[in-house]
Amino acid sequence: MPSLFRFLFICALIAGVIYGTMIALVTFVNPVERDVTIRIPSERVNKPQ
């Protein structure tokens, strides 16, 4: 049983580190807004009949 508790503790610790990293990214990183232009070839829009 002690090895099961150790395994569960390590899994919970890893999950906590991942969750903490996600919270830190959401808190400290601000996205930069910019215009996006995607060129679509006319062959894809006007398909030959």
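Second entry:
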Amino acid sequence: MTGMSGYCDWIAVDWGTSHLRAWAMQGDKPRAEARSDAGMGTLDPTGFEPALLALVEPWMGAAPIDVLMCGMVGSRQGWAEAPYRPVPCTPLGPEHGRPATRDGRLRVRIVPGLKQAHPADVMRGEETQIAGFLATHANFDGVLCLPGTHTKWVQVSAGEVVSFRTFMTGEMFALLSRQSVLRHSVGAGWDDDAFDEAVGSTLARPETLAQRLFTIRAVGLLSGPEPGRATATLSGVLLGAELAASRPYWLGQRVAVIGATDPACSYIAALKLQGVDPEVADGDAMVLAGLVAARSMAKAPV
């Protein structure tokens, strides 16, 4: 980045557990983008403001500037807690978390997450992607799938989040592939046929999940290592179980997938195997569109 004072009139920030992204905004248009690895999980309470300034100060001048944030920065372990809003509700509301700042030029607000009482569930950050999707896809009624470490399936109707479910499939894949006996089997590469078979078999009989996981290791021992096939099978087994549990969310519904390229591709492929042809939206673009929507609906300047 180079010095850009006066280049933007507000700053949009997506601050997750492992990443920090910021956009220099002029109206609803990004003029510049910056990223760092200073995620919420790497910082103590005193570290948020310095991490933000290290990224965005080249965009700032002497006057105060509005900064609107979403993500885990608003969690209890973040900069300042932005309390959850209960569903059913619109993905965005007028309430925001307001962290104290030492630098008087920063005027910061944090978008709150959403909560569901029965069954208990929460989201933080995804509500902004949902808002961005609804802002760019008028009159959408259906289900949004947001793949990630903790994938969300979200029922949307009349501009509101009606209900949602979270699945730890991504975290389970990471743990099993790195810390279980399956770490000796999985590796680089991919096998589409193995993925397709694993999705279909586990979707049909999700109660076999634990047994099918060990079969991955046994096949490698008895038939020789095929790391790409093992990786695809592990992904398919876990995703098949998730699709079995989330069936009410995607069966016979209008579905859109929002998210990063790699996990989104697996979900799209798995859904197509079930006859569902989902719409697709870029996760970064939806975050930014959601932050623009949050700023536009704010009752008072931040």
